[in-house]
Amino acid sequence: MSDEQWFYCLKHGTVETADGCRSADRLGPYPDRETAARALELAKERTEAEDRKDREWNAGSSGSS
């Protein structure tokens, strides 16, 4: 197993190592190239999960003042 970290470049839509584009233009680090390639999918899944938690929390707190 490698200690190398992988990133997904939002500007170019590519997977790269630490020596790639600037940090503001990428997601990561990820443990491997395959996970970095799924960065947008993972971000979408995490956002949907957090949005679901927010809706559940707001629904539970709507009955109290």
UniProtKB/TrEMBL annotation:
List all Basic and acidic residues biased stretches: 43-57
Q: Which domain of life is it from?
A: Bacteria
**Chain residue ranges for the region called Disordered:** 43-65
Protein name as annotated: SPOR domain-containing protein
- Which species is listed as the source? Pseudonocardia spirodelae
Write the lineage as a comma-separated list: Bacteria, Bacillati, Actinomycetota, Actinomycetes, Pseudonocardiales
